[in-house]
Amino acid sequence: MKSRAGRLYEMDFPIYELKEIPVTNAMEQAFGARPTKAVLGLDLVCIFSSEEVVRNMTPDQTFLAGIEGRIQNTTAHGTETDCVSRSFCPKLGIAEDPVCGSAHCRIAAFWAKELCKNEIYAYQASKRGGYLHCRMKGNRIAISGEAALVVVSEIVAELQ
User: Fold this and answer.
1) Going by DSSP bridges, is the β-strand pair 19-21/8-14 parallel, antiparallel, or unpaired?
2) Do the domain assignments include residue 43?
3) How confident is the model at residue 2 (pLDDT cuts 50, 70, 90)?
4) Do the domain assignments include residue 109?
5) Residue 153: CB atoms within 10 Å
6) Residue 156 forms part of a structural domain
7) Under a CB-based contact definition with an 8 Å cutoff, are residues 78 and 123 in contact?
8) Number of domains within the chain
9) Is 143 exposed, middle or buried (0-12, 13-18, 19+ CB in 10 A)?
10) How confident is the model at residue 3 (pLDDT cuts 50, 70, 90)?
11) Domain enclosing residue 55, as ranges
C-alpha cells in the first residue's frame, strides 16, 4: 500500500525477523572495516562503530557478493539522525542502492528495538543520499520519504 502526505510518499512493508549471527573476517574484508554486530534476515545488516565508518567505506563488490544476504547493508547510530546506512546489492547487479526502502524494513526495525523507539529517522549515505521516516506498526513498518519521478512507461500486452 502506498499513500502521499504532502511531499512525502509512504509505503507499508512487513517487518522481517532478524537473527544475530557471528561477525566474520569475510565481512571485514568485504566492507574494509569490522562490524561490531551482524544480523541476518533475507538481507544482512552489519552494525559499525560510527557514522563516519559507514559514510567513508569503499566495499569490495566481489567480496560482498560472497557473504550472507541478498543485500548487504551497513549502519551505525547517527549524529543528526537515529541511524545512517548504506545498501550494497552486487548479487542483484546493483553496486549501491541510493535510498533503499526495503532495506530499512530491517535497518529501522533493528534501530527501533535498539533505541526503544517506534519512529526512526534514517539517512542513507549513498552518493545521492536520502532521508527516510520509519514508523513501526506492530509487525509492519511505514516508510516515507521524498520521491522523484524518473521514468514513465506503459506496458502493452497483445492478446492472442
Assistant:
1) unpaired
2) yes
3) low
4) yes
5) 5
6) no
7) yes
8) 1
9) buried
10) low
11) 2-146
- 31-54 mean pLDDT: 97
CATH of the domain at 67: 3.10.310.10
- Between strands 140-146 and 83-89, the pairing is unpaired
pLDDT, tens digit, 9 for 90 and up, residues 103-139:
999 999 999 999 999 999 999 999 999 999 999 999 9
Q: C-alpha distances in angstroms, 30 versus 60, 80, 153, 158?
A: 5, 27, 37, 46
Torsion of CA 100, 101, 102, 106, to 10 degrees: 90
Residue 136, domain member (yes or no): yes
**Residue located via cell numbers 573476517:** 25
Q: Residue 93: is its pLDDT beyond 60?
A: yes
Q: Each residue of 75-95: b (16+ CB within 10 Å) or e? A: bbbbeebbbbbbbbbbeeeee
Looking only at the bridges linking them, the beta strands covering 83-89 and 37-40 are: unpaired
